[in-house]
Amino acid sequence: MLGLFGGTFDPIHNGHIQAANSAYQTLELDKVIMIPAGDPYLKRTNLTASKSDRYEMVSLAIEEFPFLEVSDIEILRPGPSYTVDSVKHFKKDGHAVVVLLGIDSIIDMDNWTDANALHSECEVIGLTRPGIKIDSSEAYLKRQKRYSIRTIDANSSLISSSEIRKLIQKGADVKDMVPQSVYEYILKKKLYHSLI
């Protein structure tokens, strides 16, 4: 069974790796495939790094984790990135799949293009994260009840990509928040610095 873990990863951080590891172990997955979004239609205005830079950062971040792989399927696909298209791709290759989504993404699924199609293709697993209270989200509870969404504790730290970008803009040190190789890549390419 493959776990598909998509996102903008702008940039990928230690919380993403911790969440992927928790899902891998808890669900006894064969692999977790990290899928950077090529054109995340709901987050276009928030994107900072190019899709090639985001793909490269994910590639660097997972090098030392044999249970993680990165896929460029959404980077190469023209048009908006739809999770259901990636699910169909991996299922077509004969894989059983589950989609791993942060609770905040599940809460936001009502804004997705045909989110219900994803539930008809595979199981969606919710990854908890600090600061997001699922029991107080009507959108989450409604979807969870309708589709029996399982949740697992992602054991991820209380960090976010947007927070990391803001810290870099302020000149703060973020090396404890991202993998070392990603930190070096950000410095080398001066990513997020130009927003100051």
Key descriptive features of the protein:
9 helices; alpha/beta; six-stranded parallel sheet; single chain; 6 strands; 196 residues; globular; Rossmann fold
Question: What's the topology here?
Answer:
Elements: E1 2-7, H1 14-27, E2 31-36, H2 51-61, E3 68-70, H3 73-76, H4 83-92, E4 97-102, H5 103-107, H6 115-121, E5 123-128, H7 138-147, E6 150-153, H8 161-169, H9 180-189
Parallel strand pairs: 1-2, 1-4, 2-3, 4-5, 5-6
Helix pairs in contact: 2-9, 4-6
| Number of self-contained structural domains | 1
Indicate the low-confidence ranges by residue numbers.
Answer: none
Give the termini distance in whole angstroms.
Answer: 43 Å
Widest sheet: strand ordering? 3-2-1-4-5-6
> What is the correct CATH architecture?
3-Layer(aba) Sandwich
Mean pLDDT equals 89
The topology string of helices and strands comes to EHEHEHHEHHEHEHH
Walkthrough of the structure:
Helix content is 41%, strand content 16%. With 196 residues, it is an alpha/beta fold. The chain has a single domain, classed as Rossmann fold. The chain has a 6-stranded parallel β-sheet with strand order 3-2-1-4-5-6, with helices on both faces. Strand 2 (31-36), helix 2 and strand 3 (68-70) form a beta-alpha-beta unit. The chain starts with a strand and ends in a 7-residue tail after the last helix. The model has no long low-confidence stretch (mean pLDDT 89).
Describe, in short, the structure shown:
The protein contains nine helices and six strands; from the N terminus they run βαβαβααβααβαβαα. It is of the alpha/beta class.
